[in-house]
Specification:
Elements (H helix, E strand, L loop, with lengths): L7 E5 L1 H4 L13 E2 L6 E5 L2 E8 L10 H17 L3 E3 L3 H7 L6 H14 L3 E9 L2 E2 L5 E2 L2 E7 L3 E3 L3 E4 L20 E5 L6 H13 L6 E2 H7 L7 H17 L4 E7 L2 E7 L35
Antiparallel strand pairs: 1-12, 2-3, 3-4, 4-6, 5-11, 6-9, 7-8, 10-11, 13-15, 14-15
């Protein structure tokens, strides 16, 4: 099923820079606070993100479907212009995300809603935007430690969002466009956690075509096992397919244990059948211009 160009969410770029999805088989080391009784764990692969759960909650990392459900609902809150909306039915959510509306997928969507009503997330290096102060001067953007409560709250017939998870001024009655602190994300994202994380990090992290360590990048997107190279290659292919559905592209160069991602940003449209990447607004293969300096080596 092709991405619907009208389906998108506008999210804080921190959610792209610190992608939350992990494979369901990923092992997590949970610890219990002696003071509060709550459980917590670092997000596997990224110690800058900490997950918290109440003692009686079902503890797990978000997976690719979970993140898709959250972003879909953030888009619905934005479209309806209010922080509480009528509780959507489970099967239509699954179908909107490109899945069949069977009972199994309805159950998975229900589990995702439950997760986002229980999980708390702390970013120890959360990027804050520049802010104009009362005296007219500007406070430069900087990193802070910031903890978010559960993003969703379920009522009997409604569902609400913690507005801390919603970028300011992005409800429908205001300008529904993104700025340099927010990112428009076309939905659905890949359901595979690694592929999804490649898409999200690519949207915000590689505008300067700078190579980075493969090992470090794999940890960032949740790959830290012995088969990471094979899984990484599959994730890169699926991410490229995602961008291709929006007239974008993702081309990667791997050399000397470093990876360089070259991006044609998505245009949130769908290429016509038979149209080439260049005809759809893409560029010729940029790998031809990759220099040794870009890959982190010497000229």
């Amino acid at each position: 099923m092709e991405n619907n160009p009208a389906a998108f969410a506008i999210i804080d770029k921190n959610l792209c820079n610190y992608p939350l999805a992990r494979d369901t088989r990923t092992q997590v080391k949970w610890r219990r606070s002696k003071k509060t009784g709550r459980y917590w764990a670092h997000l596997p692969g990224d110690d800058r993100v900490i997950l918290y759960f109440a003692a009686n909650a079902t503890r797990r990392c978000p997976n690719g479907l979970d993140v898709n459900v959250l972003l879909y609902l953030l888009g619905e809150f934005r479209k309806q212009g209010k922080p509480a909306i009528k509780l959507p039915k489970l099967r239509p959510i699954a179908r909107a995300l490109g899945l069949s509306g069977d009972s199994d997928n309805a159950r998975r969507v229900k589990e995702a809603l439950k997760l986002w009503c229980e999980i708390e997330v702390k970013f120890t290096e959360y990027y804050t935007p520049a802010k104009k102060q009362d005296d007219g001067t500007w406070l430069e953007g900087h990193k802070v430690s910031r903890r978010f409560g559960p993003p969703l709250e379920l009522g009997e017939t409604t569902i609400g969002v913690d507005e801390n998870w919603v970028p300011l001024n992005l409800f429908l009655h205001r300008t529904p466009t993104h700025n340099k602190y927010t990112q428009r994300v076309a939905l659905p994202l890949p359901m595979n956690a690694a592929s999804q994380n490649v898409v999200l990090t690519t949207l915000v992290s590689f505008e300067n075509t700078k190579a980075r360590s493969i090992r470090r990048y794999c940890r960032k997107i949740g790959l830290n096992h012995g088969t990471r190279r094979r899984v990484l290659n599959a994730a890169l292919r699926e991410a490229d397919e995602h961008f291709g559905k929006q007239n974008g592209s993702l081309i990667h160069v791997i050399r000397d244990q470093r990876i360089l991602l070259l991006i044609g940003k998505p245009k949130h449209g769908v290429a016509r059948q038979g149209e080439t990447q260049t005809q759809a607004g893409g560029n010729s293969d940029p790998r031809q211009g990759v220099t040794q300096t870009q890959m982190g080596g010497n000229s």
